[in-house]
Design goal:
This protein has 375 residues and is mainly beta. Helices cover 8% and strands 39% of the residues. Bound molecules: (2R,3S,4R,5S)-2-(hydroxymethyl)piperidine-3,4,5-triol (DGJ). (2R,3S,4R,5S)-2-(hydroxymethyl)piperidine-3,4,5-triol is lined by residues 41, 106-107, 209, 258-259, 278-279, 315.
Amino acid sequence: MRLKYSIIICFICTIIYSQNKNFEPGKQWKDTDGVHINAHGGGILFVDGVYYWYGEHKTEGKSGNTSLVGFSCYSSKDLYNWKNEGIVLKAEENPNSEITKGCIMERPKVIFNKKMSKYILWFHLELKDQGYNAAKAAVAISDSPKGPFKFYKSYRPNKGVWPIGFKNENKIASADESKLKSWTPEWLTAVDNGMLVRRDFEKGQMSRDMTVYVDDNNKAYLIHSSEDNLTLHISELTDDYLDFTEKWTRMAPAGHNEAPAVFKKNGIYYMITSGCTGWDPNEARSFSANSVLGPWKSLGNPCVGEDAALTFHSQSTYIFPIQGKKEQFIFMADRWKPENPIDGSYIWLPIKFANEKPILKWAEKWNLNAFAEKL
Ligand code: DGJ
C-alpha cells in the first residue's frame, strides 16, 4: 500500500517539476512530451479557455525549411506548457497538389470566422521547385481549432485592382522605368510610384511573409510583403475570410519590410516588422496608425539594450493579447537555424510601452507578472 502511494506521489512530483513556470527565450522549449516545440513562424488563436499555437513543422538538415510534413498545432491553458495536437494541415503526397511535399509553406495564422463558424488558416505558399517566385497567399478551412484543415485555394492577391487612392498618372508605366538601376534614387521613386504594382497588376500582387489581423468589427486583413518584398500590402478579406474585397493599400513603399505582426492598443494599431536578410536577423521596425489600412507612421526600432540591432537574434512572427488582461501583448519571434531548421528556437517577450511606442527588452527568463514591472 505504502509503495503504491509513494509511486503516485513520485508521479505527481514529476509532473509538477517538469512543468514550465517561465518563458526562457531562445532556449529549448519542451512540450508536455518533453520534445522541443516544432511550430516555427507561428501564430496564436484563443478558443474557449485554450490557446492554440500553429507553426511550421520543420525537419532535420538543409532541406528542413521546405514543407515535408505540414503545419503543427499545440494547445495550452497557461502559455508556458504546450501539448502537441499533431499536424493540422498536411503537405500532400499528390505531386499535382499545390501543397505537395517539398513546396514551401510558411507563417500559418488561424482566425475564426463567426459568420461561417469555421477556422480559417492563411499562410505563405511557394510552389515546389520554384524557389520563392510563386509568392502566393493560401487558405485552408477547418471545423475545429485542432484541424484537420482542408486546403482551399491559393492567390496572387488583388489581381486587376489598383490600391485605394492610386493616382491615375501612376497607372501607366514610363517607357524607360524597367531600365532603372536598382536602389538608385530614381528607381526608389519609381517603386514608390507603383512601378511593381503596375508590373504585377494583371497576374496579381506578390504575397510572401504575411500575417492576418481581425479587427473589433470582425473585418479581417491579410498583411503581406509584396513588390519583391519592397512594400507591404494590406488587403481586406471578404466576410467569409476566404477571398479579397477590392480594398487594399500599400505601406512603406520601398521600405523593405518582412515578418509583419500587428496588434491594437487603446484604439491605435501597431505593427512590428523586420528588414529583409533571409534567415539572418536584422533590426526590427515599428509603426503606428489610426486605421489598419494606414497611413502608418514609423516609430523606429522597438528593441532596446544589447543585441537590439539584431532583434535579439530573431525575426518577428506574431503578436497576441493575453486573455483576461487589459492591453497586455506578447511578441513572438523566431531564431532561425537554416543549417538544421528543427533546432530553431522561439523568442517571446512582453511588449512594454514608452512615449506611445512599443518597447522590447531582452529577458533571460520571465513570466506573466513581468507586465506589472516598470521598464
Ligand atoms: C525570411 C522570412 O521571414 C522567412 O519566413 C523565410 O521566408 C525566409 N526569409 C527565407 O529566406
